[in-house]
Amino acid sequence: MGRVAGSAKWLLGALVAPLATASALAQQSYRPPEHTQPPPFYSAVTAEQAAYLADVGLSSERDRSAKWQLAEHRRVDRALAALQPQRKGVVDAYVVAVALDSDPVFGREAREAGKVLSRRYDAAGRTIVLAGSDGSADSSLPRGAPDTLAMALARVAELIDPKEDVLILYTTSHGAPMGIVYNDADSGFGMVSPQRLWSLLGALGIERRMILVSACYSGVFVPLLSNDDSVVMTASSADRTSFGCQADSDWTFFGDALINHALRKAQPIAAVAAETERLVGEWEGRGKLVPSQPQVAIGANAGIWLAALDRRTPPAPTAPVGKPAVSLLDRP
Description:
The protein has helices at 2-29, 47-55, 66-81, 104-120, 146-159, 194-204, 222-225, 253-261, 269-286, 302-310; strands at 59-61, 93-99, 127-130, 166-172, 175-176, 179-184, 188-192, 209-214, 230-234, 295-298. With 332 residues, the chain is an alpha/beta fold. Strand 2 (93-99), helix 4 and strand 3 form a beta-alpha-beta unit.
């Protein structure tokens, strides 16, 4: 009996080992989509024209097969249908985390942001992540794009009580002086400008909101997106770049400081902003980088819904994950 069992174990091991090796090799050989071509229109227009195109929400898709489009449609449908309705008498947070660029650093950051924000703000079942590959395999999530973001926000608007509930929006991507860049490898191109996002949220009636923007020049979002019922935090001022967006990184500087450190702790949003600014400043100082100057605007009435959400924040912090963004500075 023992000999037979031993033989069976050996045979099982002999079968599983090659499969495991093949799986590991497949992961090692996977190459995420890359940017090899310029945008089809933004690179050929003036800055004023580009700003106009961003404001009207122009984006472009190319070389998308009908099969891919159907699969994407189904991914979006499943994700939107999974969002749970709000609870009467409870200040519910709806979390939307979106990576608008297909570089894996943004896909990884958006996924973890969804987890951290969902836990902190009691948004299990009310969180949606839109992102490309995390670098290990093709993404099973709806892609991060202006149209999927608009649909996610519209679905949230259908579900919430606007006088009671809150949108928590985290976006991560490359940035430009006119807004956040949408770039899905060589297939998707566009921009989300402050005007576009402000118009979208206004049309949907979402006034209670926390807008967190990780991108260069993201301070351009502060003036328009700020109101008495909102919180807006950005990775940089309107005229500065931010750092850490290399495709093989796990975090941008801002994402690491805000999501991976400050928001993991049960502390008020002002303390979150202060810790984020301090960490980013320390890392930039270590690298002798031009300070990005993260921005924060907390509306006069935002404390009402913040207090309700903070009361449900788990008291125990969670540990940071991934390679620290500042480790980029140690590269030769």
